[in-house]
Predict the 3D structure of the following.
Amino acid sequence: MAHRRREYGQYCGLAAAMDVIGERWTLLIVRELLLGPRRYNELLEDLPGIGTNLLADRLRTLVELGVLRQRPARDGGRAMAYELTPIGERLRGPVLQLAGWGMSFLGDPQPGATMRPRWGFLAVQALIDPNKVGPVDEDYEFRVDGEVFHVAVRGGRAIAESGAAVDPAFVATTDTATFIQIGSHRLTPFEAVASGRLNLQGERDALIRCSTALGMMDASPAPVSA
Amino acid sequence: MAHRRREYGQYCGLAAAMDVIGERWTLLIVRELLLGPRRYNELLEDLPGIGTNLLADRLRTLVELGVLRQRPARDGGRAMAYELTPIGERLRGPVLQLAGWGMSFLGDPQPGATMRPRWGFLAVQALIDPNKVGPVDEDYEFRVDGEVFHVAVRGGRAIAESGAAVDPAFVATTDTATFIQIGSHRLTPFEAVASGRLNLQGERDALIRCSTALGMMDASPAPVSA
DNA sequence: CTGCATCCGCCTCGATACTG
DNA sequence: CAGTATCGAGGCGGATGCAG
């Protein structure tokens, strides 16, 4: 059964947004769909602890509100996948900004915590500072625990895409934990290389340009103490 | 009593953010504090329906996590006010983006809905598109249901501030509902003026520059049907 | 097997009453 | 004014059932 959503009753953009995506798990569902269409059971796998009824309820509500829609899954068959509508896609900016903010609160990985390479991909998108992207045309490839994605810089704009780059200026290979720790400024790329957790192959200058675009060359803001 | 917060247990920036500001009412508290320090009872007044125990609990948690802090209230006395820490202040971007997204979902004001001029102020901040701010130096003043604030454009950057402008290029006077409806593209400034709900006084060119900066000159994206 | 719906115990929420 | 204590209602999480 669909439940009646609790609403704030305020004539305000933020309150309206929270009425739509403010419930528990909702924004994490959007996060997964920002990486492409996803089937019900895949989402269930991506979000340990959600409970099948809640996922079904959230998906139904988001479809009703026009944030998501269903379409035939790519792998053929009669299976359906959920994907973002244009309205849902417009959540990319807010979600990435929130992710960037939240990375300050990431401590060391806890034993029980789930970790996925997918989230490293999102972390890269969140870290890209459009104002710091240089006027070059080149690609940077990342291999995180077996998943591959890249950042393509074209005409001063950087876009993160899944899959390998065609002719990457460098290739960075690492694991999810190290990757996210670098993104959250808890670890410098230098330290990660020194400890053998990060492998870099390619042009040195491109590495510096990429680090700058990702905000890794600033004086590191002290991580938040929990 | 402080309650034990439910957490997602995912090593991901967004999940970490939601662990901090994902509970009900939390982001609306941040919204109020984005407009300056605020006392306990003021927040209670700003957020009808929150319940005093929840507010106390949220404030305590946010202070513990370093998002808020307490300081002596401006009006003297031994009263305390809550304000954002630098970490909390970094939520401005994400919150404004979410507010901009949520405005698409605002229908006509419902009878029971609360409306505050403060939120119109936030709507303006959310609407400013840095890429569309012209290379001029001028101020635009807004008077919404008695509250006054202005947008200051300096060197291609626009900043929204409370209070009157020194020498505004134009002054817009309206009510909260009209203001937010314009911001959510449910009403054009032209229609609002024609129906007498919006009064504009000042330079015509500045008006166009301001409308452009606030994204009012685009083809209006159709409002979302609920 | 996928894609949910149902049931149940617990915890969060919201409202009211109370205190320094 | 600034919270704390209490309690009913309901959202949440986990287990299980079930149809296509």
Remarks:
- The beta strands of chain A are 38-39, 68-72, 80-84, 138-144, 147-154, 157-162, 170-174, 198-202.
